[in-house]
Structure formats: structure tokens, C-alpha cells
Structures
1.
Amino acid sequence: MCGIIGTIGFPDAADALLQGLRRLEYRGYDSAGIAVRDDSGFAVRRAVGKLNALANVLNDAPLHGTTGIGHTRWATHGGVNMANAHPIMSGDRVAVVHNGIIENHRILRQALSAKGYTFHSQTDTEVLAHLFADAVDQTTTLMEATETVIAQIEGAYAFAVMVADYPDHLAIARQASPLAIGISDAAVFVGSDAIAMGDVTQRVMFLKDGDYGTISKQDIVIKDASAQLANRDITIVAASPGLVTKEGYQHFMEKEIHEQPDTVMRTLGAFSKTDGADGTDGADGAFALPDGFDFSNMTGLAYLAAGTSYNAGLIGRYWMEQLADLPVVTESASEFRYRQPSTRHISLAMGISQSGESLDTLMALRYMADKGVDTAALVNVDSSTMARESGGYLLTRAGPEIGVASTKSYMAQLTVLLIMATIAGHQRGVLSDARRAEIEQMLASVPRLIGAAMASAATIKAIVPRLAQAKSCLYLGRGTLYPLAMEGALKLKELSYIHAEAYASGEMKHGPIALIEDGLPVVALLANDEHLSKSISNVVEAKARGADVIIIATESAAKLAMDEIEGLDGHVATVPDCDALIAPLILSLPIQFLAYLTAVHKGTDVDQPRNLAKSVTVE
Ligand code: G6P
């Protein structure tokens, strides 16, 4: 998703902007650009593709100046090309970087064209540039010009604008898309998030929706949505870990897969009472949730999320209903808020989101808040919009996740969802002290079991060349392994571009079985649960119709399947035996390896798959 960076007063603006863009790379992008004010006006450099391409352009034609803006673009309106890469100009008077969608851009484009403005790109952003040029003529201050522009645009936006007539200022605004201001002794910055400015400052002012204003080295003037002057607190954000590196792994995703034992350990630690967490849990369990998370009298819970986080929420639903007898709806946030859902029975709406910025999830939470429902967020970034806006939040400790396809933050989400269901079960009198202690024991064993499950990569590697030839494939699972199958199919699709669908094993006979023909890969997930014999029967049915069955299973479940089905040698990847409750966590490893290694085999862009963005801040 597009990323914004800007600075006023930094000695080498272009360098600071490029570093900021590198920090925003995790959001996903397909072109990038920088504009710097120099003695003769605005100088712009753009490049399609990765930031190294922009760095090369800057090497050949350096920019000199202390004020500038930069952008990584994830195409929404208009193709991926130089003309559509930001900064977008209005002549030599205005330069704009923008994240979001100006929804009424067509009508504005017509009006501006009629006034004589010429459009050079297909972007919705270009109307912003020309609107600024137009507004500057009708007003006497940059603030007034900004107000004139904002009054005309509809949609989601965060922007930073340089106007030639106001050389010492940037105009900024945010509506739904994130934007923050960073303050250092030497300069002022603006960025899509605190991470973007992490190299240069920890002092960050997070803007609220509807905020706009002007910034210069001397003063920061912010107004709120009702045009009143607003004071926004300066937050000291955690020291930045610096640019995240691959540490010798081929891809960030590979590194992040291997970090998962540590991720789970850190997440368990953060909720462990001995490590300092103290709050709501009712009695002497090993884990606690922050104060305010009391499930005792709740009538229903909604998990709202997108993508991989949605798949985590589906597994969380099985756990919460099973362990705490608390009804849960898990729903795609993008659907939920528009279908006029009945919210009467829902006591708490929890957004699940790695970034804490996905617009669909944020909007669904706001919808619930408007309905008077308590909200909470399960996020990986504590300075994120969802964390700040929700009634309370739970933090996963995955650290920065760079691979667009989520692995370790998904694992951390599952860990928190299981801790939460266990505590809720105990609070609600469904789980005895002894059962809770048993589950806590299992949770503590997860990092070790995940570590051991890494060994499945070797078997998966041998399976991958066959899977990589496929055009399409099915994933099957029952119980919590059904949403895990959904996650497996999503991962394979997004990384290796092979069409993959997940079905509840029991549903196969109701339709998808018609697809099975010689050689169709069918990935079946098996664990030592009450569904095992039924799930094996479903595998038999697929195999009888010629499917190329790939079994991903706990050791003893795999053994049972191999006893019952002939010809599975070389088609089975196993993980250590474990209780069915934690099986989705442990079986996630071979699922991730299957997608990762298939993508590596096919040579796709593993860390930044085509068309995908890490954090999607448009609808
Ligand atoms: C995008 C990413 C997915 C991610 C989803 C939700 O679509 O490509 O990998 O799962 O957003 O992101 P979130 O930050 O809300 O978990």
C-alpha cells in the first residue's frame, strides 16, 4: 500500500526520504519517487519497480535540497508506469504524494480540465495537485488553500504537498489513511507511520482522522475535522530497531518462518504473569490479559479481520466456542460493516490485524463503536490506529514482519487467541483450574514443537516440484484444520500464483469432488483429533479418483493414514504428535513451507508477490 514520507529542513532531504521509503517498503509498492525543492524549483525523480531502481536514478542525477516529499506507490487508479508514479505535479507549482483514493476524482477531473488544467497521469491524485494549484490562486495562505481543497474531495486520503508559493511549508491532511508527524532537533518530518521516520526521530505526533494543516521548521499548525485548531500529543515511540535485514536467509519470509518459535515465546512471555503481565483472569493461571478483558458476562464476540488475520480469527472462533462456550462470529471486515449485521448479542468486537491499519478492519471496528459495541484490537503494532482507537488492545510480539505474506504474526495471533479463549473459559466457569493448567502447559510446549516442525521442510521440498506444475489444487481439513486449510490455500495462491481452494473435508462430497481428476493435487491436513477417521475416509475418496494426495499431518495421524491408504510414500510431511487443540499452530509450519518452497521453485517474488500490499489502507 502506498507510503508517504516528507521532510522540511533536513540537510540532505533526498537521502532522508530514500531511507524513509526503504522503511515503508514493507507496505508493498510497484513504483517510487522523490521531489526535492532546489534553487530552481522542484526537481523530481521517479522509477518503476523496486527502490534500488530509484536509488540508481538518484545516483545518476542527485537531488540537492532540504525540503522534499517521497512516495512508494501501490497502483489503484492507473497502471504501473512513470507517469503515474508520485510525486504528482501540477506544472512546476505543486508536488503531491498521496495514499488513498479520491472517490470523486472523475467529476473533479472534468471540472479541472474545463478550467484548462492538463492531466498527465491516470491517477486520482492528479486532481489533488491541480486543485492545490487552483486553490492557491484563490486564497492568501497555505492553510486556506488546503481547506479549499479538502472541501472539494471525497474519499480516503493522506497527503503531503509542496507548493512553490510557500517554500518553507508542507500542506498535509489525513482522512482514513494514516499519517504522522515526526519532530527532530534538525528537521520536521511527515510519514505514513512512525516506522517511516524511525531512522531520524522517536518523537511522533499521530494525526486523527479529519486532521489537516501546515508544517514548517518553525511551526506545526493542525486543525481538526471541524476546522478548529487542534493540539496533538507528541508520543515517544519505541526506539527503532533499524532497518530489518534478512540475516543470511534467502527471503524475509524464510527468516520470519524460522523466527516463529521465538515469536511465540515472546508472545507467551508478554501474557505470562511471571513476566509481569497482571490483570484480568480471575485466579492463579499462568497467563493474564490486561485489565478490562473480562469475558464472564459476555453474550457474544465478533472477530473482524482480513486476509491471513481473518483465517486466524476463524481458528480463534473454534477455540473460544469450545473452551469458553461463548458464541463468536468471525467475519471478513469488508463484508461485515456493509451488510447491516445484527449486533445486539455482541458484547465485544475485536479487530484482528497485524498492521492495525487495514482500512476494512478499521472501518468495521468504527461501525461497531458507532453501534455502541465495545471494541478491542489484536495487533502487532502498538502505535497503530486500531490500537489507539479501540477500547483496549492486545499486542502480539512478532516484531516487524516484512514478507507481505504473513507468517510469524499469524502464529502470534493464534497464540494470543488461544490464551484468550483459555482465560475466557476459566472466567466463565467452563474450564476447571486443572484443565486450564493443562492447556497452559500445552501453550508452553508450542515453541519447542514449532521448532521440531521445521524439519518438515525437507519432505516438503521433495513434494514441491510436482505441486509447482499444477494449475489448481485443493486443501482439505476438518475442525480447526479447516480454517488452517484456508490459510494454506491463501498462502499458495498469493505466493506461487497457483489456484488453490480450501474445503471442509466433509463438504468435498457436496461439490468439489467433481473437480478431482488424475493428478489434481489435494493437500489433506490430519491431526489426532476426533475427526481423524472421517478425514482419512475423505482422503481415500480423493485418492480413488486419481488425486495426487499430499498429506500434512501429526506423526501418528500420518501413520494411520499410511496404514489405510496405499501408495502414500513420498507424499507425507509430518510434525511431532501434539494435542488436537494446538495442532493448527504446529501444522502451520509445513503449510507455510509448502507455499514458500513452491514459490521459490517457481521463482516468483516471494517477499512482495505481484499486486499484493502488506497493509491495505483503501477499500
Ligand atoms: C493484506 C496482506 C495480507 C494480510 C491482510 C490483512 O491483504 O496482503 O497478507 O493478511 O492485508 O492485514 P492486517 O495487517 O490487517 O493483518
Note: The radius of gyration is 26 Å.
2.
Amino acid sequence: MASSSSNRQGSISSVQTENRTFSPSDEFSKKAHIPSAKKLESIRKKAAKNPVEFWEKQAESLEWFRRWNIAFKWKHPVAEWFGGGKINISYNCLDRHLNTWRRNKAALIWEGEPDGEIRTFTYSQLHHEVCKCAGVLRSLGVKKSDVVAIYMGMVPEAVIAMLACARIGATHNVVFGGFSAEALRERINDSKAVMLITQDGAFRRGTAVNLKQAADAALEHCPSIKHSLVLRRTGGEVTMKAGRDHWWHDLMRGATSNIAAEPLGSEHPHFILYTSGSTGKPKGILHTTGGYLAHVAYTTKTVFDIKDDDLYFCTADIGWVTGHSYIVYGPLANGASVLMYEGAPNFPEPDRFWDIIERHKVTIFYTAPTAIRAFIRWGDGYPLKHDLSSLRLIGTVGEPINPEAWMWYRTMIGKNKCPIVDTWWQTETGGIMIAPVPGATDTKPGSATFALPGILADVVRKDGTSCEPNEGGLLVVKHPWPGMARTIFGDKERYKETYWSNFPPTKEHQGWYFTGDGARKDTDGYFWIMGRVDDVVNVSGHRLGTAEVESALVSHPYVAEAAVVAKPDELKGNALVAFVTLKANITAGDLNKLKEELRNHVGVEIGHIAKPDEIRFTEGLPKTRSGKIMRRLLREIVAGGVISGDTTTLEDFSVLEKLRGDEE
Ligand code: WTA
């Protein structure tokens, strides 16, 4: 974090004000799991007094083979939840529903990209496939605690493979299918995976991406891998290495389905998931079993208000934590029906999601701000062409959402009737931490509202004192929670250093988790996430969250997307440089005039201190494969054009080249 010349140690100036609030309709609240602010408040109060007792109660809604004897044990920074308990996640997501009417309910409805092929798995069918896959893993020598890498597209078999690992206590390491061979190799080797599950190719935006070829290249230097299982999806040419590679369909055909779910210790390693991080080597975030499931099951029920007649569609990729927690584990633990779509939102046309919602009658839709900005850019015509009236709740995750994008989402997609749940959380937190509870919380556009019951989040200064209302500071969590990461795989020092060293234990507390995000709470106590602290800049003694300036720019009718970074400036300490993309149908005319107009617009929205010093128009912004703008690269561009950091997660290299070329 940059040093501050502002008067309070570690505080960040906030300049955004938002006065609109939206209450859930009576109709929504009446039917909701948590039907009122009053009820939520009483749950929250009780949970804050005794978070462990609260989480024990949530864990009781799962099926345990043996109940825990120590609910929570803490030796900074190592947590144990539900110690002594025995549980299995696959059992809780599948077997448990087979003794109920849900056995013939759709667990997974999958739609393929190229021709709209639809495959539906009831709970009973999904259970059968998972058991067989678990049998295949066993037959290939995979044992409890072995790591299995999964490098697949958005196909049902990816879900089946994950649940099969969980069934026998293998730890999965899902690597996003858009990663390169190099990134896959690094993640396999770091996790010492013994097996790889992949597919010939994956359909994306009308073409087949060859995954097997990348896997082959990776496996040339992966000594720990003994076998690989290959799903045929595109039918493309692949080379199968004898002895190592096996076709999914061959082995599944003869597999036994008689594989009971293994009772696992509550702290058994459930999965490793690598996060890109802003610098250096990716971190293998490790999550365990009982606490993780209790957290994701509870938050799915509470935040998505999920019910048996819902059809829930989350657009995240299975390769990211959102895909893990809120496509697979949270929803299935609740016995929900999940819609999973294989491909791109703009194939064959930019209305594919709306088309899916209309045809399948989706009731809950969960996506990311980056997607919402793309929808805005593509134009209102696409959602307007479709009947979206089945929707009752919509959500977002992944980045701060600009208030104007939030308003668009509310009116265009939610038709002013669906509550929006803006959910703040991280790969490291395992599940949702700060979010509205839709039947109970009044929302404000751009705010993730409040910490959920059992989550003790706060905004503090560097010295650990709590910030005043509207004073920006560091977002911390003051009590461990069950879904939290347990370590960085193979590097517990880095885990401690990254997350637990800023606020170590004192006489008053047992150590706080530092999120890496800046935030503020307004006078009503609402949390406003200001972005990563390395996206916070100091301009003329004011620390500004660049996300706020971006929101102001995006609220201009011509602007589709904006990224704001700092450039060293003699006078101000930092100057703000804004990279701006315009909406598709805009012909801007005199660009210099437009620049001035945008600067003034920011001045009007949030005050002159936030006016970007420089505005650069661009056709695209550099993004990670999960859609986050890589501001770090933009910072390097404005600082002199040399890109020195890690670019392995960059989605489209040509964007970078263009940005460099455009420099004045
Ligand atoms: C950001 C994704 C604002 C934040 C689940 C966090 C958000 C990082 C929100 C984690 C939100 C996520 N509002 N910012 N609703 N959700 N973030 O690990 O900076 O991919 O630290 O997990 O995304 O990203 P990750």
C-alpha cells in the first residue's frame, strides 16, 4: 500500500455517495427463508456473540457420519472446524437426497454451446455417474489424499469428476480450461497431482479449443502424473499415450457403481485452487471438508434464498471458486436444480443467456460485473427480445459493481422486481462473506451491504483501530469462519505472511484475517468495497479507490468500461490515468471534447480531486481470464511501457500491444 499523507494513519479517502435504496417487495420477503430485517438482525446479533455456536447450528443441517467433538480450535493462523467429525461432501450433495422425493428431481440441467444440446441429470442419475467415476479413479490407483488435477471445459463430467474425488477423499485441483499448458504444468507440479482428468476439446464461441494438446504439452514435464482420463466432447483428433491415457467412455462403461462415500475427517483436504494473485507465483489455496460445506450450504440457502422449485443459473466457470462453491457444492448440498451452460454469452448471438433464461425458466441468475458491462455494451435490444419474467433473484460477484451498471442490471434484467445480491468474497474465504439477504436487506446500488451472520467483518486503519463512518480503510475479518482457506498448499509461511501478519494476535484478539481489499462503511453501516488496496492511490493527499472513479466514468452514457490507474506525478504524488472504452453504438465526434466532458462528469459525480488527469480511449482492456481488469499492467504501461510482471493470466495479449501502441 502506498504511504499516506492523509491525516489518519492508514485511512483512505472516499468520494462516492449513493443515496438510492431499494427494499425487497413484500411478496418476495413473505416467502423468503429470512423474511425481514428484524429477523436477520436478531440472527446476526446472536451469531456475533457466539460465532462458533452459530456455525455449529449450520453444520447440524448436514449429515455427519460422526458428530464433531471440538467445534473450533485455533492456533494462529491454523484453524480447525468440527474436529473429530466424519463427513463426506459427495454423500451430502447426492446420497442424502436419494432417500427423499428429490431422487428424481433434476440436479443438473446442462446446455451445450454449439447446437443447444440439453442433458439432464436427476439426483439419482448424477449419483450413479459419480459412483462409477469414483470406481474408475480407484481402478487407476487413486487413493485417499491423492491430488487429482481436472482440466476441462464446462461439461457435466467436470462436476461428476469433482464429486467423484470428494467421494473417495481425493483432493481435486481444478485448473481453468482457458489456462495454457505452461500454467497447467505449474499447477500440476506444485500440487503433485497423480492424475489428470481432461477432454479432447472444449467448445467456446463457436470453435473447439484443444485441451488435450495443451495437456500433452504440460504432461511432458509432470513426473507425478501416472494416468490421465480423457473425455470425448468435440470428437477432434487426439493422441493417446498408451499406458497413461484412457478414454472416459471406455473406463466408465465397465466401472462398478458400488463405491460408498468414504467417511472423512472434517479437516480432510477437499480441494486446492490456484489464484492468480496480483504478483508472483500463483497460490494454491487449500480448502477442507466439513467447515467448507457448512459455509457454502448455509450461504447458498441464505443469500440465494434457494428453494425446491427454483432453477438456479450461475455463469461462472467451474475453474474458479464461484464454480466450485456456487455451481457444485452449495446448490447440490441444498438439493437445488442447477443450470450449467457450456459456452460463451455471445454465441451465436449476444442474447444467449437471456435465451437460456427464457427457455429453461431460470429463477435465480448469478453473474459478474464484467459480464454485465458487456451486456450494457451490446445494447438493450438483446435482453428486451426475451421474456425474463421467470427470474426472481439476480446476483453478482467478482468486482465492485458500478452503481450505474447495478441500476441497469436491476431495470433491464431484474425488471425492477428482483432483488440484487452483490456478494463479496474471495477464493480464500471459500464462500460468501458480505452480501444482502434478499428478503431482508435494503440494497444500495454498488454496495455489498452487510456481513452475513457469523462473519465478523470490519474496516480498520493500519493500526487496527476501527474507521469512522465513510472513512476508507482495510477490510478485515475478526473471527475465523468455517469456509476459510486453511493454508497455501506447500507454503504455510506465505499463508501466514499474506493473510495473517498485518493484524497479528494481541491481548484483545486472536489475530484478524486481512483481505487485501480496501473498503468503507457508510453512516448506515453498509460496506462499500473499494477494490484491492494496490488499486488505491494517493492523489494530492487523498487516497482514492480507483473503482469509485471508474464508477463515475461508467455512469456517463457514452462509456462502456473504464479502468483507472495512478501515474507518478511531481505535483500531486499521483495523477490518475483513465482507460476508457465507449459503447458500441457511440460515434464520439471530437475526442478531445469528449475527454473534457468525461473529466467534468467525474468532477460533477464525485468532486474535482477525482478528475482523471489523462483519458485514453481504447477498444479493449487487458483482463484476466476470469474477467478482472489487470490494472497492474495498465499501471506499468502508464509508468513507462515496460511490462515486467506475470502475464500468464492475461486473456488477450493483442489488447496490451494496442494499448502500448496508442501511447502518446
Ligand atoms: C473482488 C471471487 C467488490 C475483491 C469470488 C476480492 C469483489 C476479489 C466482489 C476476490 C464484490 C469479489 N464487490 N469486489 N461483490 N467480489 N471482489 O478470489 O477484490 O476471484 O478480494 O474470488 O475480487 O476474487 P476471487
Note: Residues 123-139 form the longest helix (17 residues).
3.
Amino acid sequence: MRAKSLKIQILISLAAMTGCVRTMPPAPYGACPTLQQVAWQRMETNMFCHFGPNTFSGLEWGDGSEAEELFNPTSLDCRQWAATARQGGMKGIIITAKHHDGFCLWPSAQSTHTVAQSSWRNGRGDVLRELSDACTEAGLAMGVYISPWDRNAPTYGSDAYNETFRMTLESVLSNYGSRIDGGEPQIFEQWFDGANGEGPNGKRQEYDWALFNSTVGRLQPNAIIFSDIGPGCRWVGNESGEAGETCWSTLNTEGFAPGAGAPPTDTLNRGNMRGSRWVPAETDVSIRPGWFWHADEHPKSVAELLRIYYSSVGRNSLLLLNVPPDSRGLIPAEDSLRLLEFRAALDSVFSTDMAKSARITASHTRGGKRCKEFSPCNLADGNYDTYWAVDDSILTPTLTLSFNQPVTFNRIVLQEYIPLGQRVAAFVVEYQEADGQWRPLAEGTTIGYKRILLTPKTTTKSLRISIKSSLACPILNNIGLFMDNIL
Ligand code: FUL
């Protein structure tokens, strides 16, 4: 008995010495991400590849009656796509395995409108197989866009089509994907387009979303399911690369469905504060005017791509950038070059983090000033899983960054530790002038996984970030200061 209480005494004094007496981490708040959703968000940039009969016809939407012969890439090389993605800093590739025309880039047994009916590689070609192998070799994740809207399927507009579509999903999700760890092929994201027009006989389809989602869940339990309303991630509400300046990863999905039954696009753009589900926004946008390659179109400039990065990744969203292969089956040189230039621009902006040389202090620290576990020092330690937190009752704490020498920057990066939920609803940033006066620099609402603030070029020795409103005690795991000389 005596020995036991002595042990407890020693433990208590040890805890007191480290400054952390029984301080528990904050409890999760509201709807929170799954481990897969956190991993997905941390990918930040992925590549979309629109490829199919439209690549050859010059259309954006084929009507399903195109001859299979139309699909005939002269020198398809998925390794070139993967190398481009990889060098462009993309973490995964999502391919349009089946677009609205119904044409399947793999020899699907559920359709007669596939690569097997084309003369490409004598009907023995399989784009999904080649892409699976290329992604595996390059260490990239692979995802699939499989359009429920099918303008070729004869059963479209009847119950039978839902079953056909289920089998179509099965044939892709059990045969293709990237074997990143040498294991079973993994599909990291299933993309469900909300578009729902008429089929070949003019009928529309009532989609069985529960069946589609459960099929994905059964065959690829780690896959993030994209649709207008998730469940894994949601459409951002536009195709111009802009997430809302206010962007909650939480969304109220009750009573809504993908497509015509989706919430208004501005709700998808901004999410719902205190929304019931964690359904983060994915920003899909094309490097070119169209989704498919067209001979007379050209890629966006580096400046446009940087702006898109700031308004997507920089606003708590993931960027899915479409870089479409051409009719040779290759990503054109001007696009791959542009992607590399874009990545080089990002690398140059984000290579030097001035926050690393700051002394960071906080108005409050969970468990008290001496508590290392939740210290503001964690904000610039480069470790995703360490964070600064405050006691549960503190909703409006302040952080101060002080420098020995003045620093000059025009980008501020803030990150909330999203595994414990999204909390911050308003904040302001001020800097100190040489005369000691504090001046406003920026203000914002949400932070989420990542917020990048674009500020005027500022030189200072002190910066202050004040949380003005938070749904629960704020938890931040990263702060960064950078200089963008490009935009
Ligand atoms: C839309 C489609 O209709 C477009 O063709 C494209 O695939 C885009 C990503 O999604 O809904």
C-alpha cells in the first residue's frame, strides 16, 4: 500500500515537472474525418485524365452512338501520364473509365461499347490495366470516374440498369488499381458524376445510390466516394477552381441526393457550419478550357494555375487538376511542361518558411504554459500530428510570432488539426510596425485543413493571429510564412 502511494507520488511529481498534469487532448468536435479522409486531404493535388471517344471526335459529351473504331490512340503510354503526374507533384490519377457516352476503357463484359470492340491493339487493349501498372510503378494512387449516366446502355432508364451498373463497378473495382504496397490493387477515389440525362431510348434513370455506394464500400473499403454530396468528398459547386473563402468540410446531407437533388451550388462551395457529416470539398478544374483534349485548345498559364491552387488547396479543398491526354494517347508537351512549371512555382514559393525562425508564443496553452504536448512550438515543427491546443473553455486565443530580424512575406499558411474536427469560424491577423503600432493585415472565417492567406508584401518583426470565433477550443498544427514573387 505504502509502496503504491509512493509510486503515485513520484508519477505526479514527474508529471508536474514536465508541466502536464493529467492534461487530456481535446475531444473530437462535431462530424470528424475518417483516417482515409485525412489521408485523402493530405494528398492536396491529384491529376484528372479525361480520355475516351471525345478525345477523337472533338466533343465534350458523346451521345453513345459513336463507332468504337473512333477510339484509336496511335501511341498510348500510361507511363508517360504517370511520369508527368509524378513530376508535377500529383499524388494520384483519376481516369474517366466510362464517360456519359458509355464507352469503357477496359473490356467490360457489361457493354458492347468498349475497347474490345475497337481495333485499337486488335481489340486486346486495356487502358485501365496499363494505367494500373503505370501508377503502381510510379508510386501513384489510382482513382476511377465511372459515369452512372450512360447514353449507350440499352437498359438505361429501367431497374435492370442499376444492376448492370453494379456489375460494371464490380468489374473495375475488383480488377484494377495501384498496388502501392505490393498488395491488392487499390482504388483511392471513386468519382460519381451527378449528371443524369437521357439514355439511348430517351428515358432517364432513377439511380440506386445506396447500391452503388455499398458496392464501392464492399470492394474498395478505403476508397473516398466523390459525388455532389459525398459520402467521401463533395463537389465544390463550380468548375472554375474556386472553393468558398468560407469553406466548411462539414455538410448537411439529409434529404439531398447527387445530381438534381443536390444542395444549391453555393452551399456545396461553402459547406455548412456544424454540418452533420464530414464531406470535404474537392475542386475539379481543367488545365484547358475543355475536359477532353481538343487540338485547338491550350493550357492555362502558370499564374492562372497558381491562383487556382490558392483558391482550392488554400481554401480547405483538394485540387483535382484535369490534364487530358491527346489522340495519340499522350499528354501533350505543352501541358506536361506547364504542369512542371506550376510545380516549380509552388516549390519556389513554399521552399522557405520564415515561421521556422519565429519565437511563437500563445495567450493560452492547454495544460498551462509549461505543457510541451500542446505548446505553440508544435506549430512550426513540421510534424503533422503535433499541435497547439488550448483548454476547452478558451475559444478566442491569440498567437504571436516574434523575429530577431524583420521578415518579409505575402503568404500566410494556417492549418487546423482536422482529425479532431473543424472549429475556427473567424480570425484576424495583425503585424507590428516599427513604431510599435499593430496594424490589421488579413482576416478570414474558416481555416480547416489548410488556409493560405494572400496578403500585401509585409515586413515586420511581429505578427499576431487572433481567433475571434471557434465552435470549440481551436487546435492548430501548422503555421507558415512565405514569399510569392510570381503572382
Ligand atoms: C461533369 C461532366 O458532365 C463533364 O463532362 C466532366 O466529366 C466533369 C468533370 O463532370 O459533370
Note: The first strand starts at residue 45 and ends at 49.
